[in-house]
Amino acid sequence: MSLFTRLKRSFEAFAVTERSLSIAHAGKWTVRFVLIGIIAGLGSIVFHYLCQVGLHYFMDLVAGYRPPSPAGEHHLFTSTGTPLNRYILLILPALGGILSGWLVYSYAPEAEGHGTDAAIDAYHNKGGFIRSRVPIVKIIASAITLTTGGSGGREGPIAQIGAGFGSFLATKLKLSDRERRIMMAAGIGAGVGSIFRAPLAGALFAAEVLYRDPEFESEVIIPAGISSVVAYCLFCLVYGWGSLFEAPYFHFRNPLELGPYLVLALVLVGTGILYVKSFYGIVHLFKSLNMPNYIKPALGGLCTGIIGFFLPQTLAFGYGFAQMALNNELTIPFLLFLAIGKIFTTSFSIGSGGSGGVFGPSIVIGGSMGGVVGKLFHQIIPGVVAEPGAFVVVGMAGFFTAVSNTPISTIIFVSEMTNSYHLLLPSLLVCSVAYLVGKKWTIYERQVKSKVDSPAHAGDFFVDILQAIKVQDLMHLVQDVKLIPQNMPFREFREFFCETKQHYFPVVDPNNRLVGIFSSTDIRGVLFSQGIDNLVVMRDVATFDLISTTPSEDLNSVFQKFTIKNIDSLPVVRDDDHGVLIGMLNRREVIAFYNEQVQKMKSKSNT
Predict the structure, then answer these.
(1) 484-485 and 514-519 as β-strands: parallel, antiparallel, unpaired?
(2) What residue ranges carry the coiled-coil annotation (predicted)?
(3) Are residues 231 and 263 in the same domain?
(4) Residue 143 half-sphere exposure toward CB, CA atoms < 13 A
(5) What is the DSSP annotation of 467-536?
(6) Which of 5-19, 105-119, 258-272 comes out lowest in average pLDDT?
(7) Residue 603: which residues within 8 A CB-CB, separation 6 or more?
(8) pLDDT (tens digit per residue) in 430-457
(9) Domain end residue (candidates: 451, 484, 506)
(10) DSSP-assigned states of every residue in 337-352
(11) Concatenated DSSP letters for 59-73?
(12) Domain co-membership, 94 together with 213
């Protein structure tokens, strides 16, 4: 067998081994993401069932109020026939508030509020770590809050359930913070994608909701996609396939309709600002109250009940009313009161410390305002706006974009939830305008502006900047230094040393080619020794194990070389001939240059 044949077979065997290792690695991670999807899907199934049970016994049996359900989601229990009692609706949210408040503040205070913010904060600031008890407390407290009349959504609790298990699994497997963050985000996508029957949007949402800028956490999308598909399939196997809402066959055919859609975008931004300001205004108000924390959700529930006494449609989820708006079954006053009332019931229910999501109410609020604008324009210009229900779909997407800074995932969310893909063009216009005008406000206050501002990416950002800067960009900082001939007597060097401020001394041969280097530290011990003046030449004290850099190297490599032997200055040599010295590059000046570049980049990102 020839040498060439043996080498070829060895290479092929190595390639097969590498490929096998890569497949094994991918398979291992896929199993983990599938497992996260299974747990998130089961969590969605259990949470949905608890919500149905709670609505049946609390709202229907006790208060006699049975809110309508969306077309893709039916009540699991038949009506009890109890007549409506508004006075029970008045106090029921307060009772739910005190129960959920006691549970949350006794066992997992971080489970208060809408949940998604806590997951975002864990991603950026806690290495993806979430206490294992949080999802369990969250699911029970949220079910109590939402089924006793509290206004909120299901995505926050489910996001924390999926995220909590992803974090728990990564911790048990002793994975790195980066890997824990990815698994936690995959859990968010799986939970949200399953409970809203929107697996693609769930994966995109998990990657987009982390930042205020239109930026995706790219390494999260595929893991979240795998987990979301698994969770969605499990949920639908139990509760049936199809979208959450059923929308008529809307089409966009008239470019003139973009004018009313532009008006809709501005109306949604104004409504979104009211939503964010009222929500966090109530959050700050309740935090300032001098009373036990577990009492505050009860007070918030009482305020919710007062509104619900007059506007029962603003209590609980409200998805059925969004379905009715899609079917053009509600009047303009009803839609307007539903939207405004929902803003305040959600703010009181969740802002006071209750447990529930804010995405679900946003769908109802946005759809209602879309219905109001659509119906008004249909009355004014029926030839242009022929289908007011289309504005409901676009309003859902535009409103949540305005309050969450997630334009891309929201467009997909609403398209999947309504099974309406023919309104992508007006949705894109409305979401783009809503994002640009309303980006200053967000319901997710834990979002950071971009990866530059995320502690989770501090190290990545550092390395990225260093790798983008080459030594040739710092040539103005490279200093000319005195070259020391290798045969220079020590006596002659000592005279030179007394007159220089130089700390590193390149040693060259008779042809002025770099052969070694030494520092003032290297010769300090023998500098004033007697009897070596003519016995020692500088070649004897130099080190020939040179650590140097070239103009084409990046600063990441330069810093690594600085730290190898804790040296403060590097010789810069030519790329094509390492024997030709260009000059010396000092660590202190490199650090100053890096800090200057960071400040410039931060200044640009803030403008």
Answers:
(1) unpaired
(2) none
(3) no
(4) 22
(5) HH-BGGGGGGGPBP---EETT-BHHHHHHHHTT----EEEEE-TT--EEEEEEHHHHGGGTT-TT-TTT-
(6) 5-19
(7) none
(8) 999 999 998 888 998 888 887 777 777 7
(9) 451
(10) HHHHHHHHHHHHHHHT
(11) IIIIT-------TT-
(12) yes
Residue 464 placed within a domain: no
The neighbour count for residue 449, using CB atoms within 10 Å, is 15
4-13, 486-495, 511-520: the lowest-pLDDT one: 4-13
Paired tokens of 521? 């530290």
CA pair distance 478, 468, nearest whole angstrom: 18
d(CA 8, CA 16) in angstroms, rounded, equals 12
Whether residues 309 and 195 share a domain: the answer is no
Lookup: tokens for 604: 């640009």
Domain containing residue 374: 257-451
We report the CATH number of the domain holding residue 587 as 3.10.580.10
Count the neighbouring beta carbons within 10 Å of the beta carbon of residue 80.
Answer: 13
Does a structural domain hold residue 486? yes
Q: Is residue 600 part of a domain?
A: yes
> Tokens standing for 445?
């206050």
Do 265 and 359 fall within a single domain? yes
368 close to 345: Cβ distance less than 8 angstroms = no
> Does 229 reside within a domain?
yes
Distances 556 to 160, 162, 271 between C-alpha atoms, Å: 38, 37, 48
Q: CB–CB of 477/499 below 8 Å? A: no
Residues 426 and 494 reside in one and the same domain: no
Residues 274 and 404 in one domain: yes
The Cα–Cα gap between 522 and 542 comes to 8
Least confident of 164-178, 283-297, 363-377: 164-178
Q: Count structural domains, the chain.
A: 3
Entry pTM = 0.76
**Domain identity same for 426 and 554:** no
Rounded average pLDDT over 188-211: 90
CATH number of 145's domain: 1.10.3080.10
Say if strands 504-508 and 514-519 run parallel, antiparallel, or are unpaired.
antiparallel
